[in-house]
Amino acid sequence: MWDYIKLIALGLVAVLAAIAAGNARDLAYQVNAVEVMLAAAIAFIWVLRTMGSRQPAPQNEYFDGVVRAGVIATTFWGVVGFLVAVIIAFQLAYPVLNFEWAQGYLNFGKLRPLHTSAVIFAFGGNALIASSFYVVQRTSAARLWGGGLGWFVFWGYNLFIVLAATGYILGATQSKEYAEPEWYVDWWLTIVWVAYLLAFLGTIFKRKEPHIYVANWFYLSFIVTIAMLHVVNNLAIPVSFFGSKSVQVFSGVQDAMTQWWYGHNAVGFFLTAGFLGMMYYFVPKQAERPVYSYKLSIVHFWALIFLYIWAGPHHLHYTALPDWASTLGMVMSVILWMPSWGGMINGLMTLSGAWDKLRTDPVIRMMVVSVGFYGMSTFEGPMMSIKAVNSLSHYTDWTIGHVHSGALGWNGMITFGTLYFLVPRLWAREGLYSLKLVSWHFWLSTIGIVLYAASMWVAGIMQGLMWREVDSQGFLVNAFADTVAAMHPMFVVRALGGVLYLTGGIIMAYNLYMTVARQPRVESRSVAAVPAE
Questions:
Q1: Is residue 112 a contact partner of residue 88, using CB atoms and an 8 Å limit?
Q2: Which Enzyme Commission number(s) are listed (predicted)?
C-alpha cells in the first residue's frame, strides 16, 4: 500500500513539474522544473522496479547505507567546491580569466555564490547529515527512525543543492548572502529539513541509552535553529508560480537586520554547533580517550546557543541599523569568546595522556589542528566585532581571511578527520589505504590555509589603511582602483594556497576510494549491529 502511495505522489510531482516547465516564465525556473521532473521520474521507476522485492530493514542493524552515501557525497562536493574556489581566486587575481564567451554564466559574479553554497551547504551539509546519522545511532543504541526517511533526507537535500547551483548559473537568486536560492527551492529545503528533524528526533525518542550524549545536543540545536533562521529570513512572495522571481517581505534596514541575524547564525549553528557535535564524538573516539570535562561540554553548549543568536548585528556597524542594536551584537560577540575557548580547551585536553598519538596518527593531528583553528577564529571574530577594529576591517579582505581560516581550518579539517575515521568502519576495512597520503593531505591543507589566511590578513589591513588615508587637506589619497592593484600579489598567493588545499582534497578522495577498493575486508570491524537491551 505504501509503495502505491509513493508512486501516486511521485507521478503527481513529475506531471506538475512538466506543466511548470511548459509554462515557465524564465530559463532558470524551466531548468529547475525539468530537474524536478527527472528526479521524480527516476524515483518513480525505482519504486516500480523494486515493488514486492525489497526486504524489510533488519531492526537489529544500524542504518549505515545512508551514512555511506553521505560520505561519498561529502567527498565529491568537497572537491567540486574547492575547484570552483580555485577558479574564482584566479579570476580575481587575473581578471582576463573572466572569459568573454562565458559572461553571464561562468564569470566571477555567478561562480562565487556557487562556490559558497558548494562548500558550506553541499560539502558541509552532507558531512553534518551523514555524521549526525552515524552519531545519533551509536550514542542511542538504536536504528535510525523512519525507515526510508533517511534516504529521503539524503536525496532531497542533494536535489536542493543541484536546484540551487543551476539556479545561480542561470540567474535565479535572492542576492542574500548564504540564502541565495529562490522561493520554490526554499520551500523544498524546508520539507527536507523537517524530515531530517523527524529522523533525528525519532531516533533519540526510541533510544536504548538513557543519557543523551552532548554531541546530539549540538546536532539538535543546529537542526532546530537553522530551520527557524531559514523560514524567517526567506519569507518572500512569488511574483508568479511559474517564475523564479520573488519579492522579499522585509525591506530596508529590517531586511538587513534579518539577513545578518540569519547570516551570522548560519555560521554559529551550521558551521559551529553542528561541527562541534562532530568534535565531541569523533575526537574522543580517534584519541581513544573520554571527553576531558563532560561538565564543561554542557556549559559550552548552553552558553554557546544562548549567546550566538544575539551576535548578528555586529555585521552592521556604522550603517542605518540603530546604534544600540549593533552595540548589543558587539557585546554578545565579545562574551561569546569565553564559551568558545572553553570548548576548544575541552577538545584539546581530551588528548591528555595521548599526546604521543600526534606523532604517529595524522588523523588525530588533523582533528587537533581543526580545534586550534576553531579557537583562533573564535578569538578573531569577537575582536573584529569591536567597533574600533571593525572600522578598519569591515568590507575588506581581512574578513575573507577570517572566514576562510575558520572554514578551511575548523570545518574542513574536522570533516577530513571525520571522513578518515568513518570510511574504514562503514565499509568494514582493515584501515586506511595510506597514512602517508593522510600526512601529505594534512601538510598541503595546513600550508594552503596559512598562505590563504596570511595573504588576506595583509591584503585586508592594507586595504583598510589605504581607504582611510587622507592628505594634509583631508582629501582621500587613494582611488579604489589603487587598492585593487596593490592587492594583486596577495590575490596570487591566496590562489596558490587554494591550489594546495584542492590538491589535498583530491589526495583524500583517492585515499578513501583506495581504502574501499583495495583494503581487505575485516568482519570484526563491522559495527552494523545494534546493541541488545
A1: yes
A2: 7.1.1.9
Separation of alpha carbons 405 and 506, rounded Å? 20
Tell me how far apart the alpha carbons of residues 45 and 34 are, in angstroms, rounded to a whole number. Answer: 16
Looking up cell 517581505 gives 249
Report the mean per-residue pLDDT for the chain: 95
Q: Which residues contact 12 (CB under 8 A, 6 or more apart)?
A: none
Q: Which amino acid is at 336?
A: L
Least confident of 44-53, 152-161, 335-344, 450-459: 44-53
Nearest-5° Cα angle at 256, 252 to 259: 135
Per-residue cell: 39? 528526479
Distance from C-alpha of 183 to C-alpha of 122, rounded to nearest angstrom: 19
Cα end-to-end distance, the chain, whole Å: 32
- Euclidean distance between CA atoms 130 and 73, whole angstroms: 9
Read off the C-alpha cell for 452.
590563504
Which cell is 424 given?
Answer: 574504514
CA atoms in the 13 A half-sphere facing the CB of 421:
26
All three cell numbers of 51, joined, read 515493488
Q: State the residue for C-alpha cell 582611488.
A: 479
